Amino acid sequence: MAIRMPRIIKKSSTSGDVPKGHFAVYVGEKQKKRFVIPISFLSQPLFQDLLSQAEEEFGFDHPMGGVTIPCSEDVFVDLTSRLRK
Q1: Interior angle at CA 39, CA 35 and CA 43, nearest 5
Q2: What is the pLDDT of residues 20-36, one digit of tens each?
Q3: Number of other CB atoms surrounding residue 43 within 10 Å
């Protein structure tokens, strides 16, 4: 059985490739990777908890210039895949 990555979440490399209804976040503990995710995730309690943890670690000064989430890429992908179910 193959593991499927949600189509909505994708690694993104440039700032100009964020479609309407989505936003970019930087995920990682040491090396940050950029993901583009739907704005609808902002209303999900699991995602709000993750943002609260990011606020505790970074406050409102995000070193990457965008929302930075201090968790492993695997944890982020797992969490966001549960939001799509």
Answers
A1: 120
A2: 999 888 888 888 899 99
A3: 9
pTM, 2 dp: 0.71
Residue 48, token pair as written in the block: 């709000």
Residues 44-80 pLDDT 10s: 998 998 888 878 876 766 666 678 888 889 989 998 8
Element (H, E) at 26: strand 22-27
Give me the residue spans of the domains in the chain. Answer: 22-83
CA 9 to CA 21: how far, in whole Å? Answer: 13
* Cα–Cα distance, 33 to 26 (Å, whole number): 5
Q: Please name the residue ranges forming H helices in 1-85.
A: 45-58, 73-83
